[in-house]
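note to self: dont lose this again. the chain is below, predicted strucutre after it. 408 aa total, dont forget to put it in the shared folder this time
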Amino acid sequence: MSTILGGGRRLLLAVVCAVAVANVYAVQPVLDAAGSDLGLTAGGLGWLVAVGQAGYLAGLVTLVPLGDVLDRRRLIAGHLALTAAGSAVVAASTTAPLALVGLGVAGMFAVVVQTTVAYTAAVSSPHERGRNIGAVTSGVVVGILGARVVAGFLAEVAGWRSVYAALAAASVILAGLVLISLPADESHEGARGGYRQVIASMGRLVAADRMFRSRAAIAFFVFASFGTLWSGLALPLSAEPWHLTPAQIGLFALAGLAGALGAARAGRWADRGHAGPVTGWALVVLIGSWAFTAGTGQSLWLLGAGVILLDLAVQAVHVSNQHLITTARPRQASSVIGAYMAFYSLGSALGAVTTAWTYATAGWPAACLLGAGYATAALAVCALSPRPQPAGAAPHRPPGSSEELARR
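---
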């Protein structure tokens, strides 16, 4: 398609991503208050986080591929409405099981983020696809990190339920704006098989596409590194010598918002054919960021610098990856992004689980070494990966392939 997304439409799509992803992460700063109100023990608090993440992973596999069969604009609106329903259930819940159901539903349909990115790729002209993906992805950064700040302060003013009431209202409003303001996505017409074929194609993609596998593996390790920081940061900051409150810890997310700038800039570089070099340099920066973060016990300024560098690097890699995989398979944008984001989700989970154990066993410096190790693994995968081809270049055909024989 040749439809050009103007600034207003890009902003709307970025806000959709921010609000949708906030449904998954907003529980983290209000965890203690929500658990106490719902009668959960300290050991059961993890379920409030886990059920949303589990729903999100399920949605990546089952819901995102629908965008390769249906009009993505209507799909975005419908998924926003169902996300709102899940958040409303959480806001109204009086028991832990009911809250868990609401969190699971909200998490599952929050994968509207990936449908939104696929929509953006599909309706963008090739020369500005990276720019648009970068701008929209910046909303994801704002949602993930901003949720920690806004939810913490909103909960202090009006209670933890107000966070989910606000998310439900915002999701409903955005669903209406999407239907009114965005053009229909016609890229699916005559271009795809049925839903079962799309699901099957995700498996074939992982098995047969080396470029996709390398980008997915890079994402796995990058987001393991990302998860190491953001799942473990509260541990050293709440301990000696800082003893920061949850609201104060949440303010460090503001430093991470620099990642939104990194996402937008990386998209422009990708449009110019620089996605490969950007990935390599960003991974080097990611490794280096952990040297600053390891100094948390001595200086919060060092931590702030580490957070800024980490989020800039992570988002630069993430946008470059999405640009490459959607450019290679523009007619399968939804299923490609769904499969890619499954690796993202698994990497984040790995980072969260291993960080808690590492910190308890050997302290924050060891956790920082772990995060740097994940980043180094991503750089190794990048070095061994096939070199990305410029947009519009003819795909490489092996010497003995049927395509190459036919060309001869």
